[in-house]
Each structure stands twice: as C-alpha cells, then as structure tokens.
Specification:
Number of strands: 8
Strand order of the largest sheet: 6-7-5-4-3-2-1-8
Strand content: 15-25%
CATH class: Alpha Beta
Number of domains: 1
Radius of gyration: 16 Å
Shape: globular
CATH topology: Aminopeptidase
Distance between the termini: 18 Å
Structural class: alpha+beta
Order of helices and strands: EHEEHEHEHEEHHE
Length: 212
C-alpha cells in the first residue's frame, strides 16, 4: 500500500472520480452529476491517494491551507473566532474503499495529512465530523469548537461539528497516551510519499481507478 501526494492532472482526475464513487455512488453523502468531486479548493490543496497492490485508488484525503478563500468548512461557519494568528489547515475529503474501512488505512491517511501540514507550516488543524464519529477524532486530540449543525451538502440526517487541534500539542498527547498512533503519525514511513517526489513514480500505464 502506497500513499502518494498527487501533483499530476491525470492522477488527480482519477482521485476526483474515486471520491465520486465513494461519497456519491456508494455512501450517497454528497450529490453530483459530474462523475467526480472537486471544487475551487482543489486548485491549491495537497491531495493524497492510497493505492493498493493493483494500483487502484482505495483511499483519499485532502489538506487545505488557510488562504484568500478561507477554508472549505467556512461555507457555513466562519472560523474568525478561532483563527487569530494561527496557521490553520483543514483535513477534508477523507474517503476509504469499503474493504479498508476497518483497517489501519484511515489512520495512515491521517498520518499523511499530519505530516503534510507539518512540512508546509501548519500549526492547527480543523475538520468537520459527523456526531457519531466525534469520538474517533477526540482520540486523536481534536476538540469540538462548534455546536452541532446541519450541513446541507450532506444527504443524511446526521449533524456535524467543527473540531480542531494544536498540532504540536496533539503530537505530545499522542506520544504520552497513544504511542502506537504517535509512531504512525511521526515515523519516516517509506510508504507515504509527499509532493513533488510523486512525479518520479510511474503510477499507471493505463488509467485505472477503484469502482465500488
């Protein structure tokens, strides 16, 4: 299993279509008639994809730095009350193929995102989480910074909350309380490759992607 930071348009196109397969076709959380899920934030985001042994995409996560557009979750809730002088980064578009959801892959994707945020100057991470998944992120040292709210982009009845963590403090907490998770988040894992290094890897002879 490889997790790669994608930079080339053909590879990113496959990632956008994978998101559609999982988030629209299978889970029906989002709606789209485009056959892919992307928005204006993808133009400057760091996008990661997990590839299985057959070179199919089986997982994704996106890292978005605060900028002129703000952050994706601010479509509904401004983070000005929290922003201050922090360098905010949002983790979003986490999607995992069904057969890997109970594996270590979701955490490994989070590790890639943590490392990316650290390498690119982030100090605090924010994300939105369904209420029933809040405890998972609490276990990664995230704390709720909003009341529950409904997000009209999601085609489900679950409410979401905005959560945040201070990266250095989170790593310190993980080192103390969850050493196995700490090692995954911080170790030099050769199966996670960031940024421009991915251009040196030939991923595909023919375009392929995971269909759920």
């Amino acid at each position: 299993m490889l997790i790669l930071g994608l930079t080339e348009p053909p590879h990113l196109e496959l990632l956008y279509r994978f998101r559609y397969d999982i988030l629209v076709k299978e889970l029906r959380w989002l709606s789209s008639d485009r056959g892919k899920i992307l928005d204006e934030y993808d133009m400057f985001a760091y996008n990661y994809a997990a590839f299985d042994e057959d070179r199919n995409i089986v997982g994704s996560i996106r890292v978005v730095h605060d900028g002129p557009l703000g952050l994706p979750l601010e479509r509904l809730n401004s983070l000005d009350f929290y922003r201050g002088r922090k360098h905010l980064v949002e983790f979003c578009r986490l999607a995992v193929a069904r057969q890997y959801r109970n594996s270590r892959l979701p955490l490994k994707l989070m590790a890639a995102a943590y490392q990316c945020a650290d390498l690119t100057g982030g100090t605090h991470v924010v994300l939105d989480a369904f209420l029933e998944e809040e405890a998972l992120y609490t276990g990664l040292a995230f704390k709720r910074i909003s009341e529950p709210y409904s997000d009209p982009q999601y085609n489900c009845n679950s409410q979401v909350v905005t959560m945040a963590t201070h990266m250095k403090k989170a790593i310190s907490i993980m080192k103390r309380d969850r050493p196995a998770v700490y090692r995954m988040l911080t170790q030099n894992d050769k199966s996670i490759i960031h940024g421009e290094l991915c251009q040196e890897i030939v991923l595909f002879e023919e375009p392929t992607f995971y269909w759920s």
